[in-house]
Specification:
The chain is of the alpha/beta class and 420 residues long. The chain is built from 14 helices and 16 strands. The chain has two domains: 164 residues, Aspartate Aminotransferase, domain 1; 249 residues, Type I PLP-dependent aspartate aminotransferase-like (Major domain) (Aspartate Aminotransferase, domain 2, 3-Layer(aba) Sandwich), CATH 3.40.640. Bound molecules: ligand KE4.
Length: 420
């Protein structure tokens, strides 16, 4: 069977043949590759072809695939219990570790996905303030919650409009959209609604438009506006948590949000999410307080075992972050040299071990910039690399992730050769 055959078969029983649209190759064309196993920096497809993996399950695999300590932790826990639906000390240990590492977090609730984390954080911002409106940023992605599937209405300061069928107009209308890296666009939303905005949610380093770092003063400006207006500042660190620094973007940039959303790395590859932050806010959450949120498998022992093994390894070997930075710089330098050599209309943007090659002259600072990318040229680059055994995220508007066990030299020549 070819991957196309496998994809055809999957499409007869799963919408679009995938369980998440990001996997479907819609942005690059062709049929997705079906994988069978993974180890370290490599994925192996159903024909046992090896690929250097730069998706890393969209972020979780910072230690590389099937890290022995993580596999052993899951194996050992599975032999004891898969799930209790009752308290287990692993959940407390995870909460304590997150509180120890992530600067602004004083209390944590574990959930099963990043979407659950962001949905719950926004509900908490509304519950704590008694306000309904939230502010997000065009191009940022916070999971598939109704509140986030909303784009700017006709005018920048008008109420949001749904970006997906099935999202009630009322749900989208409570979302205002600002422009990333443009603090004035946020101020313009607060000014006419001084007491109506419950919270602002932001990817402190954007991964979902491709990698866009915050401009100096942007995160600080959000902090100042939220403090002044009594709104809750939510950092969506589902991607950046334990990725761009042990304590995430809030550690790297020294700006403290009121709530933080986490996912991906803290589950070590198993389904996980978390939201946490100021104790006075978190004590609104049931059963401590009246804001309801629940989940059958929240904090389940297997995900906790995988996540704790991952985070404890990162804590035991902090030099991993130095390697991730060095390797990211090597990739960035090699790509920039090729761009200069060939006079290409491309730019590389990177923070630590997450980055993007934009088919855009740069800089890319917001969705207004990102949407001008030559996505056809990206798709050609993607397929050139895929044919040579390098698996990049199959979309221009995603970030690559490399791990502690990647040898960047192994992929750099292919990444550059593919740039013409
Ligand atoms: P999940 O519900 O997919 O666990 O997390 C949603 C989410 C929330 N916040 C940020 C910043 C995220 O990046 C994500 C999910 N990231 C995408 C990749 N860009 C996951 C890939 C997918 O949807 O299949």
């Amino acid at each position: 069977m070819t991957h196309e055959d496998r994809f055809q078969r999957a499409r007869t029983v799963i919408p679009g043949g995938v369980n998440s649209p990001a996997r479907a190759f819609k942005a690059v064309g062709g049929s997705p590759v079906f994988f069978e196993r993974a180890e370290g920096a490599y994925l192996y497809d159903t024909d046992d072809r090896r690929f250097v993996d730069f998706v890393g399950s969209w972020g979780p695999m910072i230690l590389g695939h099937s890290h022995p300590e993580v596999v052993e932790a899951v194996r050992e826990q599975a032999s004891r219990a898969m799930s209790f639906g009752a308290p287990c000390e692993l959940e407390t240990e995870m909460a304590e570790l997150v509180i120890e590492v992530v600067p602004s977090v004083e209390m944590v609730r574990l959930v099963n996905s990043g979407t659950e984390a962001t949905m719950s954080a926004i509900r908490l911002a509304r519950a704590a303030t008694g306000r309904d409106m939230i502010v997000k940023f065009e191009g940022c992605y916070h999971g598939h919650g109704d509140a986030f599937l909303s784009k700017s209405g006709s005018g920048m300061a008008t109420l949001g409009e749904p970006t997906s069928p099935g999202v009630p107009k009322g749900a989208a209308a409570c979302t205002l959209n600002a422009r990333y890296n443009d603090i004035e666009s946020v101020r313009r939303l607060f000014d006419p609604n001084p007491d109506a905005i419950a919270g602002v949610i932001v990817e402190p380093v954007v991964g979902n438009m491709g990698c866009i770092p915050p401009q100096p003063g942007f995160l600080e400006g959000l902090r100042e506006l939220c403090t002044r207006h009594g709104a809750v500042l939510v950092f969506d660190e589902v991607m950046t948590g334990f990725r761009v620094a042990p304590g995430g973007a809030q550690e790297r940039y020294g700006v403290s949000p009121d709530l933080t959303c986490l996912g991906k790395i803290i589950g070590g590859g198993l389904p996980v999410g978390a939201y946490g932050g100021r104790r006075d806010l978190m004590e609104h959450v049931a059963p401590a307080g009246p804001m309801y949120q629940a989940g059958t498998l929240s904090g389940n022992p297997l995900a906790m075992a995988a996540g704790l093994a991952t985070l404890r390894h990162l804590r035991a070997y902090p030099e991993i972050y130095d390697k991730l930075e060095r390797d990211g710089q090597a990739i960035e330098d090699a790509l920039n040299a090729r761009i200069r050599e060939r006079g290409l209309s491309c730019c590389v943007q990177r923070v630590g071990s997450m980055g993007t090659l934009f088919f855009h002259p740069g800089p890319v600072r917001s969705w207004d910039d990102a949407k001008q990318c030559d996505t056809k040229a990206f798709a050609e680059w993607f397929h050139t690399l895929l044919a040579k055994g390098v698996y990049m995220p199959p979309a221009q508007y995603e970030a690559w992730f490399h791990s502690a066990v990647h040898d960047p030299e192994e992929a750099i020549s292919i990444m550059c050769e593919g740039l013409n």
